[in-house]
Amino acid sequence: MSTSSLDGLRKSLRRRLDSGAAEGLVWALGFAVASLISLAIYLLLGRPLRPWPGSLPGMAFGIAATVLFMAAALYSLRRRAMGLATRWHLGRTRSWLYVHVYGGGMFLLLVLLHSAFRWPSGVLSWSLWILSFWTVLTGLLGLALQRWIPRVLASLSTEINAARIPQLSQEIRQRVEALVASCDDPVKKLATRRIHQDLQGPRRSLKFFIDPSSASSAFPLEELAYLRRLAVGDEEERLQQLERLLATKHELDVHFTLQNALRVWLVVHLPASWMLLMLILIHIFSVVYY
């Protein structure tokens, strides 16, 4: 690729990043303004109109919260129908993500305004409250994970499909055991004490969320490096191979931990979201019917 082509690509990427940052700023400002207006309406009209949830502003906040939740829920449908959304020009995924994030945050605020910041009463009201907070807070957690985890995984030297990690871990274990069997006694003792147990399969560890890049916290790479400096000939080569295999196993474990964290988050967030949607519809029906 020529230099002019690379410069053009860099400028195009820079323009996209700048436009994305500008769009995000617009959404953040819109969220702040809408929140201030909603709070101002509540402070001006909340005291003279009681009971608040049944008043006109209270009902308006409830309706607005429902509409925003429906709009935020459409993001998941938009992601599952990428081709259809592109063909019908339904907007960019990034714009829908902003609707999902800021709409969800605004939904929670409107729920609090609808209930006048009072503790709920009754099973349905408590369920709506708990699921509203749970859905929004786990959504924010998922947003943080989806931004942080791909960056961490991209910084590793391996790119692995999570489904292949158990098979690759088994292959590494067999190769490590074969190498250790041909090494001298100090290496065999070190492997028995610090290596073999961690090679039995993919490992999950909270340490990978704090320091995912350091394999020395999982395997005795510093001790192996010391033994390699003392070794000569084929022993030195075997220890180099052993270090590379253990570093690869560490990265497999990081992938296994972080990719599974995203899967667990989906199980925590999505069912609660759909359950909340069902309860909102039940709440609307009960208000209209009774």
Count all strands and give the number.
Answer: 0
Strand content: under 5%
Q: Name the structural class.
A: mainly alpha
Encode the helix/strand succession as letters.
HHHHHHHHHH
User: Mind describing the biggest β-sheet?
Assistant: none
Helix content: over 70%
Average pLDDT for all residues: 82
Question: Describe it for me?
Answer:
The protein is mainly alpha-helical and 290 residues long. The chain contains ten helices and no strands. The protein has helices spanning 3-45, 56-80, 82-87, 93-114, 123-155, 165-181, 185-194, 207-210, 221-230, 234-289. Helix 1 (3-45) packs parallel to helix 4.
List descriptors.
290 residues, mainly alpha, 10 helices
Which SSEs are present, and which pair or pack?
Elements: H1 3-45, H2 56-80, H3 82-87, H4 93-114, H5 123-155, H6 165-181, H7 185-194, H8 207-210, H9 221-230, H10 234-289
Helix pairs in contact: 1-4, 2-4, 4-5, 5-10, 6-10, 9-10
Structure in a nutshell:
The protein has helices spanning 3-45, 56-80, 82-87, 93-114, 123-155, 165-181, 185-194, 207-210, 221-230, 234-289. The protein is an all-alpha fold and 290 residues long.
